[in-house]
Amino acid sequence: MKNSFIYIIILTILACACKNDNDDKKELKKNTVQIDNIKDETNLNISILLDLSDRIDTIKYPNEAMQNYLRDIGYINSVITAFTTHLKQKKVRKMNDKIALYFDPEPKNQKINKISQELKFDITRQNVTLELFDEIQKAYTEKPKQIYELAISDGNYVGSDTWNFFKSKLKDYCIEDDHRNILIILTDGYMFHIDNKRKNDNKTSYLRPQDIRSWGLNDEKWESEFKQKGFGFIPASQNLQNLDVLVLGLNPDKKNTYEEEVLRKFWSNWLEDMDIRYSEIKTNDIPSNMDKVIQEFILQN
Q1: Helix (H) or strand (E) segment spanning residue 245
Q2: Angle of the 110-117 helix axis to the 130-154 helix axis, nearest 10
């Protein structure tokens, strides 16, 4: 009889403990994010760099399958899906993740600049909620499209100064201590800005289809010519061992059979010269085909 009484008391205590634990979990879920199976405690710092040059012009460069700017938007959707998936794998107390969107040069349209500010998110244990996840997803679903549409309607394409972004802004904007820093570059692979045309011997801060032709890199001998004459981009920075780079959207000029190989060579050498920890370079494709590539790059490296 005495043993039965003790058994009943133990069951009652356990039942109360379970109830309190469930109540605590419900309250936590209501206010923040509770994930049981944590796969990754890495702090992510993701930066997205847009090329708002005339490559997004739907008249000059039409694409029947899907306009180039819509492909960019699809890629961005995959990035944000991977980012929120990562967040949901972390404990609340481990939250310290960032995401932002940039372009260089800044467009003169102040609406575009204002929208880009609304795409900067810093997620910490103090502010993380399920509502914040929804806000991030909504912002990156709607606002990049607004940026592209404003840039296209303005029609004032001044080029893309990716080289200067690496030289003057990248370390300040995109590198954080104790984070895995990821830079996603959406570009056709060419670089040009009218106010930044640097040339040291055969290394430059710019690259256009006409340059590739004039330098004789448009036939089967391009690789030996590239090596012998020392073509390439001028390194814009150094010691970027704390940065991973994913280049998306290479769109080589179809007039040159070797154009894609040349673009890849310029980019891969450039990133290597700047000590980038890890990089991948992908050609232009529809977002559904690139989704797995993007998510794996962010979540598995």
Answers
A1: strand 244-250
A2: 160
Tokens representing 137 are 């997803």
Looking at residue 168, the DSSP 8-state letter turns out to be I
What is the rounded CA–CA span in Å between residue 199 and residue 205? Answer: 7
pTM: 0.86
SS3 call for 55: helix
Which residue(s) pair with 203 in the sheet? 200, 232
pLDDT at 155: 83
- The whole-number pLDDT of residue 40 equals 54
Please give the Cα distance from 260 to 258 (Å, whole number): 6
pLDDT at 30: 36
**Helix H or strand E segment including 171:** helix 170-174
Q: How does pLDDT run across 281-297, given as a tens digit for each residue?
A: 999 999 999 999 999 99
Between helix 287-300 and helix 68-88 the angle, nearest 10°, is: 30
Helices (H) and strands (E) in the chain, counts: 10, 11
Whether the Cβ atoms of residue 42 and residue 254 lie closer than 8 Å to each other: no
